[in-house]
Design goal:
439 residues; mainly alpha; Preprotein translocase SecY subunit; SecY_dom_sf; transmembrane; cell membrane
């Protein structure tokens, strides 16, 4: 406890770090206030009490902005959609592949294209959002309400983008990820209180057991997020002029879960397709009716088995587009590095690809288990709001953002010659001299 208090004092003793933390809190406060500003022309007392299905997941990521019909109703999610589209274009379109290889200037152009693409996406999604608002809540429905709401929601999303960029530039951590995490965390206190009230005094031991299981699940997600398979790399002795550099030994860190949360997002978006398709023929076929019922219930074994298999497939897919063994092998060869016992070039690429394939399997299976664990928790008697924090997109995003933020704070402390927040001075799974993996 004394070490923790000392670390907090050291954090606020560094002027730049203190300013960045205060700036981050200020921008987050602005975002949270905007979540409760209802769209003009909407009666908040007549809104639906809660969102279900895909809208419920979206509402959780947005911290309630969707169900409140807020000016930030879509938040930063259209920007995330645009980012995913641009990532896929860097694989299929040579122009974007070229931009990705141009370094900082190429990344700036891709970011600019992402911002531009966000506008048509949010305009299209705002039409869908207006359709979800129950008619009784709209005071004066019509063309004017639709057009004005589309403009306001688009402006709200662009403002959220601006807040995210400001947090990245003037604050601490990744701004876009921070905004999503704050929306998720804002639901946690209410979920815990609701769970405690549901269990009551008679089942207080069960509630305590649930908290212990939640802690263990969080620890498992941290291990999955931080776990890496290190491939040793040797650099030959280099001589330049009068300077001689001794041989160095570093490593390539291949993450067990290189795909992050993206496989769950992709799989979740596809899991609504069977129920939608089955609803068209549900009155004409018993099989369609059966599929519609089972895939509308995310606690059914049919739903979770399909969901888990899709996550495993998408984990391999996203890892393949994120980590390029050929490029890693080429970079090593150009810089004079080699994997001991493996020939440079093609053999190195095949060696890295084989290891990547092996370590991705346990990562994919673990990710699938974490994704379906909220459904298991719900079946075991945990309330729906609290069960969402037992895994899935919400928990992985929270853990990832917190770890990245802690790592940034750690770097500031070590640069100022303070003791880090961890006893080892660095987070597990990280090193002072990693070799970056180009995507």
């Amino acid at each position: 406890m004394n070490k923790f208090i000392t670390s907090i004092k050291n954090i606020f003793a560094i002027e730049d770090l203190r300013t960045r933390i205060l700036n981050t809190l200020f921008f987050i406060a602005i975002y949270r206030l905007g979540v409760y500003v209802v769209l003009p022309g909407v009666d908040p007392t007549r809104l639906k009490t809660g969102a279900q299905g895909l809208f419920g997941i979206l509402d959780t990521l947005l911290g309630g902005a969707f169900s409140h019909a807020s000016i930030f109703a879509l938040g930063i999610m259209p920007y995330i959609s645009a980012s995913i589209v641009l990532q896929l274009l860097t694989i299929a379109v040579p122009y974007f592949q070229k931009l990705q290889k141009e370094g900082e200037s190429g990344r700036k152009k891709i970011n600019q294209y992402t911002r531009i693409l966000t506008i048509p996406i949010v305009l299209a999604q705002s039409v869908g959002f207006i359709a979800t608002i129950n008619a009784e809540a709209i005071i004066n429905p019509g063309t004017f309400f639709t057009v004005s709401t589309m403009i306001i929601i688009t402006a709200g999303t662009l403002f959220c983008m601006w807040l995210g960029e400001k947090i990245t530039d003037k604050g601490i951590g990744n701004g876009i990820s921070m905004i999503i995490m704050i929306g998720i965390v804002s639901r946690l206190p209410g979920a815990i209180i609701g769970e405690a009230a549901a269990k009551g005094v008679n089942k207080s031991l069960i509630f305590l057991l649930e908290m212990v299981v939640l802690f263990l699940v969080v620890m498992a997600v941290i291990v999955l997020t931080q776990a890496v398979r290190r491939i040793a790399v040797q650099y030959a002795k280099q001589v330049g002029g009068t300077t001689q550099l001794d041989a160095q030994r570093q490593f390539i860190p291949l993450k067990v879960n290189a795909a992050g949360v993206m496989p769950i997002i992709f799989a979740q978006s596809l899991m609504f397709v069977p129920a939608i398709v089955a609803s068209v023929w549900q009155n004409q076929s018993d099989t369609a009716s059966y599929i519609g019922v089972k895939f509308s219930d995310y606690t059914s074994w049919q739903y979770n088995l399909t969901f888990g298999l899709l996550i495993i497939i998408f984990t391999y897919f996203y890892t393949a587009i994120s980590v390029n063994p050929n490029q890693i092998a080429d970079d090593l060869k150009r810089s004079g590095g080699f994997v001991p016992g493996v020939k440079p070039g093609r053999d190195t690429s095949e060696f890295i690809d084989e290891i990547l394939t092996r370590v991705t399997l346990p990562g994919a299976v673990a990710l699938a288990l974490i994704a379906i664990f909220p459904a298991i928790a719900l079946l075991l008697g945990v309330t729906r709001p609290f069960s969402a924090f037992y895994g899935g997109t919400s928990l992985i995003i929270m853990v990832g953002v917190v770890l990245d933020t802690v790592n940034q704070v750690q770097s500031y402390l070590l640069m100022q010659h303070y003791d880090g927040m961890m006893k080892s001075g660095k987070l597990r799974g990280r090193t002072a001299q990693p070799i970056s993996i180009a995507s």
